[in-house]
Amino acid sequence: METAPPRVAIVGGGLAGMAAALGLSQAGFKVTLIEARSKTGGRAGSFIDPTTGAEIDYCQHVGMGCCTNLLDLLKRTGQLDAWRRYRSLTFIGPEGQVCPFARSRWMPAPLHLMKAFSGLSYLSQDLRKTIAHGIWKLMRLRPEDQANWPTMRDWLTAAGQSESAIREFWDVILVSALGEATDRVAVAPARKVLVDGFLSHRDAGDVWVPQLPLSVLFGQRLPDDLTRRGVEIRLSARATGIESHGGRATGVRLSDGSTIAADYLLIATPWHQLQNVLGDASDAVDDGESIALIPASPITGIHLWCDRPLTDADHLVFVDRTIQWLFRPTFASDQTGRIYHQIVISGSRDLPPRQQLLDQVVNELRELLPAARDANVVDSRIVTDPKSVFSVSRETEKRRPAATTRLPNLWLAGDWTATGWPATMESAVIGGYRAADQIADTLGRPCGNEQPALATSWLAKLLIR
Q1: Where does the Amine oxidase domain start and stop, copy by copy (predicted)?
Q2: Fewer CB within 10 Å, N- or C-terminus of the chain?
Q3: How many domains are contained in the chain?
Q4: Which stretch of DSSP H or E encloses residue 48?
Q5: How high is the mean pLDDT of the chain?
Q6: What is the DSSP letter of 219?
Q7: At 118, is the secondary structure helix, strand, or coil?
Q8: Domain boundary among 203, 222, 247
Q9: pTM for the full model?
Q10: Domain check: are 318 and 434 in the same one?
């Protein structure tokens, strides 16, 4: 008689939940994915432009070459073709200087960025020397010493970085990557971004940009792939508690009064929803209430429809301005001639009122981009998610939980778990893969979903601690 496959219920249809569903379905589990919203994708979603009906991302998401787990998920589910790889960036200096930032194809890491760094012409020679000294000190900073500093800005100041160096280099990289200001973030995630994201491998800093709306990628294509693999996806199904008996989780209670029975449970919701899902089983997670209180950091997307392109570039990085990134996804422009642009501002808690912010951004664009000076803004929309990412402070790093809980068959997954990464798509996928691997291991079904980091060059191993 054939044994029924073990049942797994996953609460949360974001990237972590879907990554776990992929791994567990391939390991022979019967997977039910439970999502409270009408679409999967979690925080990586889109809205409908009322004028054209087009799907517009709330906020632009990008991957990097160092995101080995995200890229693995996209490849395994046949989605890599919908992402474009960029091997260079373009920085717009404070006075409008156009500075290409392209790695060497031949130099080993971390020397592959020397030419790119020297090409940041808006930085004075003295400032470049100061920043290079800071990068060297960060590369040599031991892991055990990283927690000694309250914030990354404290470390930067102690490392001799001037206010100009912080504003014109460190903040440009770190605020957008971490979604938070350097006077709030811990040293460890900041170092992770710079060392793993740029310095350790030639391909690490490549930028991967989606060429379709996130709602198509993660709300249609990815769940369709999971369904073909046998995953049952329950949409508009809100979990209100965990059923348990005899020291084990036995199922998930839904708001309609029904229960989904399972042999294994995985909670992959945002951190601030954890307690709501646990319900009466809140003591199953160590410091669950503390996890729920992890502070959030907002990210703002400013959506502009103009009568002409503001730039020929697909994306630009702005230095020491309100604008941090400008993207020009061609799929979002419409048949009426309106050209779509999106501006991203991370850590956006101190922005001015909406109209003042819009005027400020448009003025910056006209000041810095020649093509924008005669352009007219036909329509605009400002979208701020106050809980876009968790704030990667030193206190947060201490609170981030492991995948395991006090119940032997209940796991956690999400970008907010202790993945070693900040709040990114990579962290979410690692969280899902790691939990799936651990669940499979309990039945002796190792599946090896979690991917290793990019191989470090011999020189990088020598120079980076």
Answers
A1: 15-439
A2: N
A3: 3
A4: strand 46-48
A5: 96
A6: I
A7: helix
A8: 203
A9: 0.97
A10: no
